[in-house]
Amino acid sequence: MMAPQIASALPLMYHAFKGVQAAGVQTLSTIPNFGIVAGLLISPFMVRWFHEKATIIIGLLVTLIAGTFPMYASAYVPILISRFLIGLGIGLFNSLAVSLIPQFYKRDEDELARMIGYQNVMGSVGAAIASFLVSYLVTISWHAAFAIYLLVIPVLILFALFVPLPHTATPRQTSQTTTKAAGNHQINRPVVVISILMFLVFTFYMPFSYELPSLIVNEGLGNASTAALIAGLSTLVSIPIGASFGFFFKRLHDRIFPLGFVLVAAGFLLIAVATNIIFLFIAVVILGFGFGLGVPYLYN
């Protein structure tokens, strides 16, 4: 998800909108989450009628258009709406980025675990690239920071041209099958438990990602560019963890989850008591290490 990446630009935006307080500016970083929820709710219906590939392409287009809108807009309300829409676009394809993997690698559990680890790696690579770009772009202006959403263009082109999805039923057949199966549908308890765990995990993580730049600036640990650089470096550190998820899963299995979130808890605790940028960076790395183990396990 690229929505939180512009959080480093928020300190520069506090005085950009007349009559809008700091809390209103921070809403620009949090409101995409509501759009993501809406997109996740709409996505199954779009998949039913347009298939996965068309749904993902539509989501990428919405993300591109809404994401780059603040590059040339200066009014608060239109930018706020565009931030909701970028969340909507991300929500349309975000769950499919993981759920499509088993369609290609469902025959081998170890290979599936490796691919989910690689998916986590590529997400980290994208987040790192975006963070490093933002660390430079914020030195130009807060408008320029939103240029990171131009990274959607190569993703859109490559996916549209080179990703053949497995054959699925026609939209109408899918709709009929779904309707017939609805009567026999039962609540999947493990899915409910995993959903609750994911909710709790990101309830803590998302505010952290939004408030880290403000913490760095307000405590005098660095500036907006430093905050983006820290986010990028910590993301780079998590790449080998994601790449080796299959290795850890094969040897630890269910023990990965408690290990990962013990590290997450330790990372949050160390961030709370950090007094300099080096200490903070180490704490963020520990946090990222824990997420690199725990979150892919939940997806797997």
UniProtKB/TrEMBL annotation:
Q: Where are the transmembrane segments?
A: 57-79, 85-105, 117-138, 144-166, 187-208, 228-249, 256-273, 279-299
Keywords carried by this UniProt record: Cell membrane, Membrane, Transmembrane, Transmembrane helix, Transport
Q: Which residues form the Major facilitator superfamily (MFS) profile domain?
A: 1-300
Source taxon at top rank: Bacteria
Q: Tell me, what's a Pfam family for it? A: MFS_1
As for subcellular location, the record says:
Cell membrane
Give the principal location in a single coarse category: membrane
Membrane topology listed for this record: Multi-pass membrane protein
Annotated Gene Ontology cellular component terms: plasma membrane
Instruction: Show the InterPro entries listed in the entry.
Output: MFS (IPR011701), MFS_dom (IPR020846), MFS_Efflux_Transporters (IPR050189), MFS_trans_sf (IPR036259)
What Gene Ontology terms describe what this protein does at the molecular function level? transmembrane transporter activity
Q: What is this protein called?
A: Transport protein
Q: Which organism is it from?
A: Lactiplantibacillus pentosus DSM 20314
Taxonomy, top ranks, is: Bacteria, Bacillati, Bacillota, Bacilli, Lactobacillales
